[in-house]
Write a structure and sequence with these properties.
2 copies of one chain form a homodimer. Chain A is α+β, with helices and mostly antiparallel strands. Helix content of chain A is 40%, strand content 23%. In chain A, the strands form 3 sheets. Chain A has a 4-stranded antiparallel beta sheet. The radius of gyration of chain A is 18 Å and the shape is globular. The structure holds a DNA duplex (30 and 30 nucleotides).
DNA sequence: CGGGACTTTGAAACCCTTCAATGCCAGTGG
DNA sequence: CCACTGGCATTGAAGGGTTTCAAAGTCCCG
């Protein structure tokens, strides 16, 4: 489930030589919270990689709702599409998110010339598939408790900080709601529900500690 | 949203020379309905492509439920992973589904040697990302009517038969339920709901005709 | 200290799930 | 030819979870 790329809260060290070559093309920039990184309808001229912070690939619906299709953490690539235009809006979710942009044409030429780079890009695309597929499993859960529970476990893994089981969420309740396809109120209720069951403890809205993984599985099974 | 690869009910003609090379590696086989194509836990030694019929990439949950993570139609690739082992069960959904299997090692070597093939595989991976992301949007819909409605529109596009707007569903209600993360009964109710609104007509359980796309949009907006 | 954004909590309405029964269709055997 | 069977689809009713609207509470920052 987890990709070959390490997810850390800071820039992953590109141990691969292939990446060092790609990185020569990269333009880095820092984003404010909510700042748009790429916009639907524009030509898809870049591949991107999150280096620090977090970003969300969003789809805007006709009714004004926002759906976060993919949550992008350090190490994750996005903008990988076979279309000529972007279909999604990508926004920074936390302040000072750092993104590297790779000019697509030149990156593709580099991939043509260097099989290692082609392989690396392929792997990154595969990682994106795995990410989105695992999100589908979360969205397919029956109850909101299960959704929030599996989201937290996934985040604990992806953010894998030195202190595992202690998560600093990069997003607000509202953004979790857009990501999990439930209302922000239900997200909140589910978290307090998990707290009351002794599965987690909350230290401020975004600091979450996983106390008892056993409880999560019980919740997952039938929310007893 | 739709990939560069044409989706037809029969084998797509591989106009690209790159594909012809890859096809030399392929082992083709025909599957019965429900037959497993690859199994979780086994080494991921192949890439696959559906040539005819349909297949479903399934995740089995602890409670015995089945979730269809990706619906694979002719032209679609699957088995694209960076892991050493498969995580999903892939099953044929219709009788006589034809699949081509590409030995992964050799296909990768071929991609290393031939940038066109590498590019083609990359595009196919990108297409898989687009497929799953659009499925996330469907799962994120509010009501079952919206889910079923947008599913039908998507299928009409992907199956694009000569007579557009006339779909022959490759799957049962139960499988649609597993794909849309709602119960089979609700799928049925939604279909009759759409019928009563004049959006579709049913000729047998699997033959569906889209009568009025306007109605779909109304449903999507707020299911009036 | 106040403002503002975010989070939590409450109550009513609504939609979906579940369980159950009925209906439909094709294939089989008498 | 017909009855029968099994799988699938449809429909009904009760119960429960989520959404929505609303209000109160919390936290951070100027």
């Amino acid at each position: 489930m987890s990709s070959a790329i390490a997810h850390r809260s800071e820039v992953p060290t590109h141990s691969d030589q292939a990446f060092e070559l790609l990185d020569c093309l990269a333009v880095r920039f820092k984003c404010h919270r909510g700042q748009e990184i790429c916009r639907p309808g524009r030509p898809a001229d870049y591949w991107y990689r999150v280096l620090a912070g977090a970003a969300g690939k969003c789809a805007l619906q006709v009714d004004g709702r926002r759906r976060i299709v993919d949550l992008l953490l350090p190490g994750d690539f996005f903008g990988l599409t076979s279309e000529k235009e972007n279909h999604h809006l990508v926004e920074a979710v936390v302040e000072d998110t750092v993104v590297a942009a790779f000019p697509r044409r030149r990156a593709e030429l580099m991939a043509d010339a260097n099989p290692e780079i082609a392989r690396a890009v392929r792997e990154l695309a595969f990682a994106a598939i795995a990410r989105v597929e695992s999100q589908i499993l979360i969205l397919g859960q029956m109850s909101a408790l299960e959704k929030v529970g599996s989201f937290l476990l996934t985040m604990a893994e992806r953010l894998s900080s030195p202190a595992r089981d202690e998560i600093m969420l990069p997003m607000s309740r509202c953004e979790m709601a857009d990501y999990l396809a439930i209302s922000a109120e239900t997200v909140s209720r589910s978290l307090t529900g998990l707290k009351h069951r002794g599965a987690i403890s909350l230290g401020g809205a975004r600091r979450i500690k996983i106390l008892n993984r056993k409880t999560f599985e019980e919740v997952a099974e039938h929310m007893e």
